[in-house]
């Protein structure tokens, strides 16, 4: 039987009990497959790689080497959470790589969105490969492949997400989630004790804030988009919109406009709020956010975030817009 086809008899994992059964079976299998060898995993902190990490920690403990690459395009608090959850709570063997300057230097002056994606993807593989070479005796590479990645013939994970297999490093693949759908991965993650804001988090593109800091990335605008996104998330969470809206974030264009602050003229950037609902990301509708909340978020962003003097709300469904701006 082809190991990449989900058997019709496979029960859908909907409860903690079923998740526990899956976890126990996987731990057995992983132990058998890996033995006393070492496994490498690129741990982004996204749902899929986090669940793979948590499973492997249970199965092979310190034989798992997690590599978390901070490319400078993560959301506020993400690298800290990965370190806290995996090193702090799960005692994982975690290598944290601060590659911020490296990525931002490579991206300097590059404004074409696809070019930006290519640079981020290629640089990620390079950094990951360098870390892999520093480790002795790695024989396996774990990946957070899930069933939709296998079903979609163009391999969305490979094409969409940052990362990939270093070509000349010969590793055997370990893909414990490859027959699961996303909702099942979340149930398993919850049963493994991962925090809710990791398990239920909204989709976040592999190239991260790199495609939300529009045009050529600059550090001032990157900070502004990171800070404004954190305010938006905080307000959505406080106001019961987290989990209700499919995806929400801010983007910052590469243009400035005139404003006024404390009686003085400013020449600063606008921030764009995007909040959409969708089933499959092929089409999307705009969330009807209460106007008072939009005003409150605007007030916070324009006072708390440096280099920003306006906030705009994107009312465009998909089509004609896409969800992201780049
Ligand atoms: P668009 O902008 O095409 O986005 O309407 C649809 C969904 O895909 C996500 N997206 C990406 N995810 N790498 C990713 O991993 C990417 O380069 C990328 N571009 C868009 C987007 O966030 C939305 O959920």
Side-by-side strand order of the widest sheet: 3-2-1-4-5
The multimeric state of the shown protein is single chain
* Shape verdict: globular
For the secondary structure, the number of strands is: 10
| Contiguous uncertain segments of 5+ residues | none
Q: What summary fits the major beta sheet?
A: 5 strands, parallel
Radius of gyration: 21 Å
Bound molecules: xanthosine-5'-monophosphate
Q: Percent of residues in helical segments?
A: 40-55%
Q: What is the CATH C-level name of the largest domain?
A: Alpha Beta
Strand content: 15-25%
Q: Descriptors for this entry?
A:
single chain, 326 residues, Rossmann fold, GMP Synthetase, Chain A, domain 3, 2 domains, 41% helix, 18% strand
Short description:
This protein has 326 residues and is α/β, with parallel strands linked by helices.
Q: What would your notes on this structure say?
A:
By secondary structure, this protein is of the alpha/beta class. The chain has two domains: 16-199, HUPs (Rossmann fold, 3-Layer(aba) Sandwich), CATH 3.40.50.620; 212-313, GMP Synthetase, Chain A, domain 3, CATH 3.30.300. 41% of the residues lie in helices and 18% in strands. It contains eleven helices and ten strands. It has helices at 16-34, 47-60, 78-89, 100-107, 113-134, 147-151, 156-160, 182-191, 196-199, 219-238, 291-304, and strands spanning 38-42, 64-70, 93-98, 138-142, 172-174, 247-251, 257-261, 264-277, 285-286, 308-313. The protein has a five-stranded parallel beta sheet, with helices on both faces. Strands 6, 7, 8, 9 and 10 form a five-stranded mixed beta sheet that branches. Strand 7 and strand 8 (264-277) form a beta hairpin. Helix 1 (16-34) crosses helix 8, helix 2 packs across helix 8 (182-191) and helix 4 runs antiparallel to helix 5 (113-134). The longest helix is centred in the middle third of the chain and has 22 residues, at 113-134. The radius of gyration is 21 Å and the shape is globular. The model has no long low-confidence stretch (mean pLDDT 95). Residues 117, 160-161, 203, 205-207, 247, 281, 318, 322-324 line the site of xanthosine-5'-monophosphate (XMP).
């Amino acid at each position: 039987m082809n190991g990449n086809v989900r058997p019709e008899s496979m029960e859908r994992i909907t409860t903690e009990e079923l998740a526990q059964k899956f976890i126990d079976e996987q731990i057995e299998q992983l132990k058998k497959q890996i033995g006393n060898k070492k496994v490498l995993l690129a741990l982004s902190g996204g749902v899929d790689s986090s669940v793979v990490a948590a499973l492997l920690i249970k199965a092979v403990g310190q034989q798992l080497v997690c590599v978390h690459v901070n490319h400078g395009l993560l959301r506020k608090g993400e690298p800290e959470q990965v370190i806290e959850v995996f090193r702090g709570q799960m005692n994982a063997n975690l290598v944290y790589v601060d590659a911020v300057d490296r990525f931002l230097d490579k991206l300097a002056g590059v404004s074409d969105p696809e070019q930006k994606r290519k640079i981020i993807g290629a640089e990620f593989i390079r950094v990951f490969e360098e870390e892999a070479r520093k480790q002795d005796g790695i024989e396996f590479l774990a990946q957070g492949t899930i069933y939709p990645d296998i079903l979609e013939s163009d391999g969305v994970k490979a094409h969409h997400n940052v990362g990939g297999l270093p070509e000349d490093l010969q590793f055997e693949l370990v893909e414990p989630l490859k027959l699961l759908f996303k909702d099942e991965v979340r149930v398993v993650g919850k049963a493994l004790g991962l925090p809710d804001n990791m398990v239920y988090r909204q989709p976040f593109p592999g190239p991260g804030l790199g495609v939300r800091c529009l045009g050529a990335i600059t550090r001032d605008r990157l900070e502004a988009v990171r800070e404004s996104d954190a305010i938006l998330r905080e307000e959505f969470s406080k106001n019961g919109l987290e989990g209700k809206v499919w995806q929400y974030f801010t983007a910052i264009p590469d243009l400035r406009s005139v404003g006024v602050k404390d009686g003085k003229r400013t020449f600063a950037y606008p921030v764009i709020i995007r909040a959409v609902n969708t089933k499959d990301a092929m089409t999307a509708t705009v969330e009807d956010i209460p106007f008072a909340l939009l005003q409150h978020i605007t007030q916070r962003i324009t006072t708390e975030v440096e280099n920003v003097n306006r906030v705009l709300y994107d009312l465009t469904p998909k089509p004609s817009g896409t969800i992201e701006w780049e």
